[in-house]
Amino acid sequence: MAATFRATFMVTEACNYRCTYCDVRKSLTAAGPKALADAAEFARKNAAGLLSFKFFGGEPTLAWDTVEKFVRDVPELSGRYAIVTNGTTLDGAKCAVLARHFGELRVSVDTEHEFDAERISALMLAHGLGERATYNLVVDPQDVAGAGKRLAGLAALGAQNVNILPVYFTKKWPAESLKAFAEFLKTACALAKAGRVRLVGFQENAGRDASLFNRSVFLDVTARAHYSDLVSTELGASWKKELDLGPAARLALADLDGARIAGLDGVVRAATARLEATCPGQKGLHRMMDYGSTYLNA
Ligand code: SF4
Fold first, then answer.
1. What are 102-148's pLDDT values in tens digits?
2. pLDDT digits 0-9 by tens, 119-131
3. What spacing in Å lies between the alpha carbon of 18 and ligand 1's midpoint?
């Protein structure tokens, strides 16, 4: 049976935000025509084994022409496309493309920036994207209360999908922030039980040994393939070589057999352990996400 994988393509390293919790590498570099062609070849060749193909950045909507061209050129993956965006440049024209080709849309919401939940929600509704949209709610240890307000705002708009993302590695979690986060989780679970929001992230974030980023095939802006999008970060830059899978255009998912993946998993686990050792509070966060998941499913 063919291997199944999620793939992520960093279409640009540019971003119009500079979130203080963000560790994703940023520059003005964007995927050029050769990278686009190589990534498209990878997608076509491996279409049978790809569960999803996600556009990532930086802010991927800043390279919208690339995204649009890609989905036009590789219709095989229509319905399995995904995107992570801060939502600032979303408009009717982009949402029409998303509605036609995308199965999933992740909109990042934090407390450092203004977030017009009503505008985004209205756009989603108008384009039939409500069910496919999930708000990645970033919880900053310095402003857990602010995240609570954002959550209340989303709940007021009615049954939105919310993925709770406590800032795992780039900030410290003092005891009082962990306590506030426990209360925040309780409120979130109560809202979910009342049907006011849908918490979709617990399944992804709870109980993971590698909490930072996903295990997927990651294509950088040059369309070189890596295992795990850890390499897109400053933190993961030193593992770039270990996680390197070669040029995307030549990579067949079927070649990623169990032994090779097990070896790469070890690199990701070691990286995560090192990160956890330098960021106190991470284990507490994990336990709480596990607890939230158990409580919600009880
Ligand atoms: S978290 Fe996302 S929106 Fe914020 S700076 Fe990083 S890439 Fe940009």
1. 999 999 999 999 999 999 999 999 999 999 999 999 999 999 999 99
2. 999 999 999 999 9
3. 6
What is the 3-class SS of 105-152, one letter each residue? Answer: EEEEECCCCCCCHHHHHHHHHHCCCHHHEEEEEEECCCCHHHHHHHHH
Ligand 1 centroid, distance to 30 Cα (angstroms): 15
Q: What are phi and psi of 194, to 5 degrees?
A: -85, 0
Tell whether ligand 1 has an atom less than 6 A from the beta carbon of residue 108: yes
Backbone torsions φ then ψ of 156, nearest 5 degrees: -65, -25
DSSP 227: E
Q: Give the other-Cβ count within 10 Å of 151's Cβ.
A: 24
CA of 14 to the centre of ligand 1 (A): 9
Cα–Cα nearest to 221, from 69, 19, 25, 61: 25
Average pLDDT on 180-184 reads 91
Ranked by mean pLDDT, the top range of 139-143, 176-180, 201-205 is 139-143
Could you give all domains of the chain from N- to C-terminal order, each with its CATH number?
5-296 (3.20.20.70)
Residue nearest to atom 7 of ligand 1 (CA): 58
pTM for this model (two decimals): 0.92
Give just the sign of the alpha carbon dihedral 189, 191, 197, 198. positive
What residues does 217 pair with on adjacent strands?
A: 7, 227
107-134 b/e (C-beta count within 10 Å ≥ 16 → b):
bbbbbbeebebeebbebbeebebbebbb
pLDDT tens figures, 55-74? 999 999 999 999 999 999 99
CB 110 within 8 A of CB 138: yes
DSSP 219: E
Report the candidate in 77, 88, 65 with the shortest Cα–Cα distance to residue 12. 65
- Residue in 8, 11, 13, 17 to alter for ligand 1 test, most ligand atoms within 8 A of Cβ: 17
